[in-house]
Task: inverse folding
C-alpha cells in the first residue's frame, strides 16, 4: 500500500454473502476511493466481521478514525444480520472493537445507489437504445438500482436540488411474477422446492442454478446440478444449450423485474444494474431479451421504451458507494455539473 494511505481517516467495507471488501477513502481528493487500498476476502474465512476488518488493518497498517460499512441485509437500530451469511453486526460493538470515533452502517444497496453520481463514463454501459443518463444537479431525478449477485439487491436514488438520497429496500424478496407458460412451469418447480418463490430465488448466483435445474427438467436437457460459475462458463463457450437458455431466461427475468421497479419507484430517469453478475452476462443483456421484458408493461410500454438501462462496470461499486456515504456525512456534494457527471456511453 502507498504509505500515505495509512493516514487516511475513513475505513470502507462492502459486505456481501460471499465476499467482503475493504478500502480507505480520502474525502479531500477528486476520487475519494483509494483504489490501491482495496483488499478482498471471503466471508467464510472469518468468524466475525471484526476479525476480517482487523486482518485488513493489520495488513495495511491503516489507523482510520471513521468508518462506513455497507451490508447485504436490513439495517435496524444500528444492527444488521447478513441475509445470506451468519454474521450479525452491532454498530456500537464494532466501533469499539475497531477503535473508531464514528461509524455508519448502511444497507449495501443504499451505498450502491449513492455510488451513481461518482461513476465515470467508462464505468457504465447503456443497454438498449436510450443513452445513459447525464446527472444534473439542477434537476430532480429518480433511478432504480437492481443488482443480482449472491442475492438480489434493490435500491433507489433520488437527486433533488443538488442532494442525493438513497432508499434502502429488500426488494429482492418480492414475489416472482410469471409472464409466459414456461415461466409458470419454472414457478411450479421452484414452488415445490421452496414454497414461496421470491425474485432472488431466480435472480442471483444461486438463482442461476435453480433456473438451470428447472429448465433442464422442463425441456429434457441432461440433469446436472451446476454451480453458477460453470453455467456462465459453458454459456460463454456456447457449449451447452441448457446453460445458454438459462442465461437468456435470466436476462429476460432481470428485465421484467427492473421494469417493475421503475413502476414501483417512479424511476423514470433510469435503471442501473449493479452486482457481480451483469458484467459477466453483458453480451446476453445486450441481445434484446432483457429490454423486451423490461418494456413489456402493458399501458406503460411507451414510457418504459424511453427509460435508460445501464450496467455498472466499476469492479468495486459497493466501495465507491461507501465512499459516497462518507462524503455525504461530511457535507460534500455528490451530484456534480453535467460536464463532470456520468455521460452517455
Result:
Amino acid at each position: 500500500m502507498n504509505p500515505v494511505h495509512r493516514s487516511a481517516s475513513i475505513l470502507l467495507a462492502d459486505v456481501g454473502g460471499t465476499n467482503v471488501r475493504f478500502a480507505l477513502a480520502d474525502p479531500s481528493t477528486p476520487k475519494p476511493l483509494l483504489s490501491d487500498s482495496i483488499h478482498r476476502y471471503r466471508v467464510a474465512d472469518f468468524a466475525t466481521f471484526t476479525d476480517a476488518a482487523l486482518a485488513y488493518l493489520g495488513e495495511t497498517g491503516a489507523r482510520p478514525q471513521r468508518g462506513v460499512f455497507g451490508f447485504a441485509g436490513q439495517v435496524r437500530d444500528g444492527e444488521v444480520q447478513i441475509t445470506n451469511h451468519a454474521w450479525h453486526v452491532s454498530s456500537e460493538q464494532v466501533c469499539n472493537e475497531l477503535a473508531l470515533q464514528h461509524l455508519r452502517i448502511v444497507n449495501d444497496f443504499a451505498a450502491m445507489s449513492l455510488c451513481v453520481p461518482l461513476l465515470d463514463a467508462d464505468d457504465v454501459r447503456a443497454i438498449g437504445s436510450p443513452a445513459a443518463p447525464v446527472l444534473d444537479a439542477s434537476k430532480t431525478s429518480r433511478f432504480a438500482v437492481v443488482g443480482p449477485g449472491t442475492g438480489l439487491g434493490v435500491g433507489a436514488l433520488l437527486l433533488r436540488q443538488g442532494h442525493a438520497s438513497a432508499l434502502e429496500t429488500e426488494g429482492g424478496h418480492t414475489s416472482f411474477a410469471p409472464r409466459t407458460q414456461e415461466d409458470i412451469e419454472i414457478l411450479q418447480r421452484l414452488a415445490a422446492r421452496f414454497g414461496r418463490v421470491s425474485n432472488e430465488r431466480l435472480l442471483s448466483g444461486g438463482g442461476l442454478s435453480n433456473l438451470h435445474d428447472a429448465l433442464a427438467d422442463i425441456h429434457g436437457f441432461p440433469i446436472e446440478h451446476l454451480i453458477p460459475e460453470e453455467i456462465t462458463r459453458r454459456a460463454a463457450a456456447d457449449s451447452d444449450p441448457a446453460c445458454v437458455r438459462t442465461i437468456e431466461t435470466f436476462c429476460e427475468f432481470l428485465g421484467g423485474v427492473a421494469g417493475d421497479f421503475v413502476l414501483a419507484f417512479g424511476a423514470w430517469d433510469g435503471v442501473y444494474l449493479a452486482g457481480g453478475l451483469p458484467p459477466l452476462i453483458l453480451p446476453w443483456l445486450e441481445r434484446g431479451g432483457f429490454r423486451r421484458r423490461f418494456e413489456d408493461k402493458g399501458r406503460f410500454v411507451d414510457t418504459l421504451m424511453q427509460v435508460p438501462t445501464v450496467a455498472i462496470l466499476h469492479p468495486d461499486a459497493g466501495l465507491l458507494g461507501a465512499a459516497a456515504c462518507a462524503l455525504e456525512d461530511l457535507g460534500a456534494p455528490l451530484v456534480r455539473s453535467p460536464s463532470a457527471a456520468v455521460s452517455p456511453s
About this structure: Residues 241-265 form the longest helix (25 residues). The mean pLDDT is 91.
